[in-house]
Structures are given as structure tokens and as C-alpha cells.
Amino acid sequence: MSEILRQHIEKIVPLTDVEFEHILSHFIRKKFKKHQFVVQEGQKVDYDFFILDGCLKSYSTDANGKEHIIQFGMQNWWITDYQAYYGQLLATVNIDCIEASELLCLSYANREKLCSEYHKIEHFFRRKTNKRNVALQQRILSLLSSSAKERYDQLLQQYPELFQKVPKHLIASYLGVTRETLSRFNQSDK
After folding, report:
1. Is 11 helix (H, G, I), strand (E, B) or coil?
2. Domain region containing 9
3. N or C end of the chain, less CB within 10 A?
4. Counted domains in the chain
5. For the purposes of burial, counting CB atoms within 10 Å of the CB of 46, is it exposed (0-12), middle (13-18) or buried (19 or more)?
6. Over 90: is that where the pLDDT of 55 sits?
7. Residue 172's closest CA among 187, 155, 158, 190?
């Protein structure tokens, strides 16, 4: 499974076997059960998580108990509460497993150590952060200027595998629509 991480990194920077083994030694492999929390609001966030297998959701719960999905995470994706991780603050979001998941966990200290040891790893993380920033901006602009149907079509086009893994009510929450509205979109696609 660790080859998934190597392939992921090598899409941006090449690694020797020795470099990869050293990098991998800074991660902790953990398995989580379906519905198990990886990060809980109000707790310390120790890790950035690289997903080897499974599916997760990052979300906030409002005062009325309604979940607002911020992000999904699938194989080859990274997920954490970035504000808490980088700032060494307490979590403001929850992250839990939609299905049983296997993750590689990278502490902030180990990330900084790897970046100081390998310029190429610092470059890798900078590129990943840039991509995440662009994706976040696109998500915000989509929420502000696209119709719910347009957001649905875009998500389906970009991540069709998400619709196989994630329950419809969670996709509806991510899109900011009701489950009934999502069902109408599904009907109109047939």
C-alpha cells in the first residue's frame, strides 16, 4: 500500500528508493473503522492524513445540529483540519470515516523535518497546497455563482467514483441542497 504514496509523490518529484524509505519512516499507518473519528472538533490535530484506502468526510455542525460537508477524501487524497494542523490549534471541524479506511499519518514536526531535509519534498507539499488552494477557490466560487444543478453536474463529472462511495444525503449536504433536490437531479439524468 505504501507504493500508493510513492506514486503520488512521484507525479511531482522523483525519488530514489532510499529517499522514499526515509520519507515513509516519518509516517504512521493507521486503520479506522466506518464512522470512526479521525479528527474531532475541539481536540488537538496531530496529523495530516494521506488516504491509502477508504473514504472520509470533513464537516462542521451548526447550532441546529445540521452537518455541513466541507470536503470528502478518497484514495490518494490528503485530509485534515488545516487551520488546526498548521497553527497547532484545536480542531474546528470533524473528520470521520464514511467507510473503513487506512491512512498514513504525518505529524507537523515530521513534515517540517522532511521539508528541511529534502527540497524536493518541500516543493511537493507546496504544489499540493497550491492545488488545494485553487480547488477551494473554485468550490467557493461555485457555491456563490452556480446553480445547485450545475454544482451537481460538475461534481459528477469530476468525481464519479464519489457517487459510488458516498451516501446521497452526504452529497446533498456537500452541494448545499436537500436530498429531495438531489433525487430530482438523479431523475433528470436518466
Report:
1. coil
2. 2-110
3. C
4. 1
5. middle
6. yes
7. 155
Burial class (CB in 10 A: 0-12, 13-18, 19+), 166: buried
Q: How many CA atoms lie within 13 A of 87 on its CB side?
A: 8
Name the CA radius of gyration of the chain, rounded: 17
**Alpha carbons 23 and 18: distance in angstroms, whole number:** 9
Domain assignment present for residue 161? The answer is no
Query: Do the beta carbons of residue 100 and residue 54 sit within 8 Å?
Result: yes
- H or E segment at 59? strand 47-61
* Cα separations in angstroms, 6 against 40, 88, 90, 116, 130: 28, 27, 30, 19, 20
Q: Which helix (H) or strand (E) holds 78?
A: strand 78-79
- CATH number of the domain that 53 lies in? 2.60.120.10
Q: Pick the more confident residue, 139 or 38.
A: 38
This prediction's pTM: 0.91
Q: Which residue has the cell 477551494?
A: 136
Q: What is the DSSP string of 17-34?
A: HHHHHHHHTTEEEEEE-T
